[in-house]
Amino acid sequence: MADQRQLDRVTAFAVERVNEARAVDDPFLHLELDRFFPDDIYQQIVASLPSLTEYRPMSGRSKDSNRADGSPTRVKIDLFPEYTRLLPREDRALWDLVGRSLCSSALQDAFMRRLAPGLERRFGEDFADVGMFPVPVLTRDVSGYSIPPHTDTHWKGITVLIYLPPDDTLQHIGTVVHEKMADGSFRRAGQGRFAPNSGMAFAVGDNTWHSVDPVGPEVETRDLIILQYFVDSGLLRMLRNRGKRLGNMLRNEMGRLARVSK
């Protein structure tokens, strides 16, 4: 369980970084995040990234992105307590701290304030009353991963990407943002730097086109946290969000037991 003082410190730091993030309007409103975690926490994160065996294949659009041998090019660990408790003992407290800070109401409020124009564009003037369900996911991409321009599913309200490289050598593999033109083609409007402790955030809408270029053989791992805020208003969405979390937990437990029994 995360130490409360540490949790308050990490959360307050992240909120401040969101409040100070640079807002970019082209091709859609998004925040450029920098130094998202305190330096000491970020160093621990990079040093404590789990081994591949701790991850499970990604679902959704990424589930069909496999290598020729069938191995997935994107895998994940949901940073909820039911997952972090299964990590190596020496790393559990850190990942529990990270997950709980990302799920904090203070951080959610900060993102909703800064992304208000995008949220209002989608949900109307009462956007602040729209519930959000945070799902923090530690993600690992390997050579061969890519995803074409897309806008994210309508189930999501906000997408946050936090890049976790150890240094600046792979800045060219950041997320690309696009504008969709009248003829259906895409204008490449910009690309995030895949730099340590940086990232981007945006309110999901019908114009938030983004992609990832094919990850080349020079990349051993492309590690990042994807913090997804799912729309949590209405009984259907509330049941879906909690049911999906429960279902993922059960599938993870069954997979873990199957591995142990071999």
Element-by-element helix/strand order = HEEHEEHHHHEEEEEEEEH
Count all strands and give the number: 12
Gyration radius from CA atoms, angstroms: 18 Å
Q: Record the strand order, biggest sheet.
A: 1-2-10-7-12-5-4-3
Sheet with most strands: 8 strands, antiparallel
Give the CATH architecture: Sandwich
Shape by Cα distribution: globular
Distance between the termini: 30 Å
Task: Report on the architecture of this protein.
By secondary structure, the protein is α+β, with helices and mostly antiparallel strands. The protein has one domain (4-261): q2cbj1_9rhob like domain (Jelly Rolls, Sandwich), CATH 2.60.120.620. Helices cover 34% and strands 26% of the residues. The protein has seven helices and twelve strands. The strands form two sheets. An eight-stranded antiparallel sheet has the order 1-2-10-7-12-5-4-3. Helix 1 (4-20) crosses helix 4. It starts with a helix and ends with a helix. It comes from Pseudolabrys taiwanensis.
